[in-house]
Amino acid sequence: MITGHAAKRRARFSRVLVLLAAAALFAAGCAGARSPAHPAGEGGAEKKLKVVTSFYPLYDFASKIGGDRADVTNLVPAGVDSHDWSPRLQDVRRISEADLFVYLGAGYEGWVDEFLDALDPGDAPKTVEASRGADLIRLSGGDAHRHDGGGGPGHGHGPGNGHDPDRGESGNTDGRGDGHGRDAGRDFPVTDPHVWLSPKQALVLADNIRRAFVEADPDHREIYERNHGLLAGRLAELDAKARQMADNAAKKTFIVSHASFGYLARDYGLTQIGVMGLSPDAEPTAGWLREVREEAGRLGIRYLLFEELVSPRVAETLAESLGIETLVLNPLEGLTEEQLEAGEDYFSVMERNLTTLAVALE
Fold first, then answer.
1. Is residue 322 within a helix (H) or strand (E), and if so which, with residue range?
2. 103 with 221, same domain?
3. Burial (0-12, 13-18, 19+ Cβ within 10 Å), 186
4. Residue 346: what pLDDT?
């Protein structure tokens, strides 16, 4: 079902193309705007590596790896859902002037390829596709709604299976999409981009960012390697906690409003059922809601997990239609100003997510 989400996305994409044209003109005049990270600036102080990231998890990892040696800027403002965001001219300028640009890939940022193509190769920042090498989920049929650990129940069977456009979205194996792992010109996902929500896959993201820092600023390799070691250690601890949570869970299936936890489910032997699939504002059909309700009753599932940046009223309405209660699960696509001011980060939010999941799986 082609929804207003698709129309809005196409309109945003057209606006991005205009910005890309402006970027090409801007880039032609900004040669020399960037300078190596190590030469001394005023007063003999070393200049920091200028890094721009496409959204919050990459910003957090880059900030931790760069430490005091990097000036890291995140493109998506606090409290803004990255699904509904597209770059403005000032964002294009930030990327053009950076030493290093970190983006996720996996089809998440549909504007990236066109943007990079618009830049003069001699003046483009060094870029890193953070998801490269991660074990990506390629979607087909109802996998847009449901992911599990492989051949278990729900992976290609049961609710969400098939190519019914009214039920959700189906896909193919082309990983290049229009901004959310979707095949160009159509409204279904081909790759689940939410790779950062599995600590196991987040280790891959962090290592790719480490390599990019070292290549962009080899004089400070030791600092980046040390900082990455600390980050990787914390991710390994989080991985162990996620595995323990899943192993101890009485239930192995959870229901989410937005099917963004497929990697967490797959990597730790769980199954997620997404009421609205990968599109956070797609409308579920009555038939799909009926199937989810029946599955919830059969498995004794008591909670619908919904994300913080989605209206609680929508989640409560969905939960009421399913006959269950609600809990908040954060997909970490962006933190609010209040969370940032309180010192929240990837780890504090993921720890809370694991605690919430443990309750939902009791």
1. helix 312-322
2. yes
3. middle
4. 98
Among the listed ranges 6-10, 222-226, 287-291, which one has the minimum average pLDDT value? 6-10
- Same domain for 279 and 346, yes or no, is yes
Positive or negative torsion for Cα 353, 355, 358, 359: negative
Over the Cα atoms of the chain, what is R_g? 21
Same domain, 351 and 306: yes
Q: What's the pLDDT tens digit per position in 344-353? A: 999 999 999 9
Examine the domain organization and report whether 115 and 258 are in the same domain. no
Pairing of strands 49-53, 100-103: parallel
Q: Are residues 190 and 203 in the same domain?
A: no
Q: Provide the residue range defining the domain that includes 172.
A: 137-194+243-360
The answer to whether residues 108 and 249 belong to one domain is no
Q: Which residue has the higher pLDDT, 24 or 61?
A: 61
User: Residue 7's closest CA among 311, 284, 279?
Assistant: 279
> Which helix H or strand E contains 191, and what residues bound it?
strand 191-192
Residues 74-128: pLDDT tens digits? 998 876 766 667 778 888 888 989 999 999 999 898 888 888 888 777 778 999 9
Which DSSP string do the residues of 129-142 spell out, in sequence order? ETTTTS--EE--GG
Q: Is residue 265 within 8 Å of residue 272, measured between CB atoms?
A: yes
If asked whether residues 258 and 210 sit together in one domain, one would say no
* Number of domain units in the chain: 2
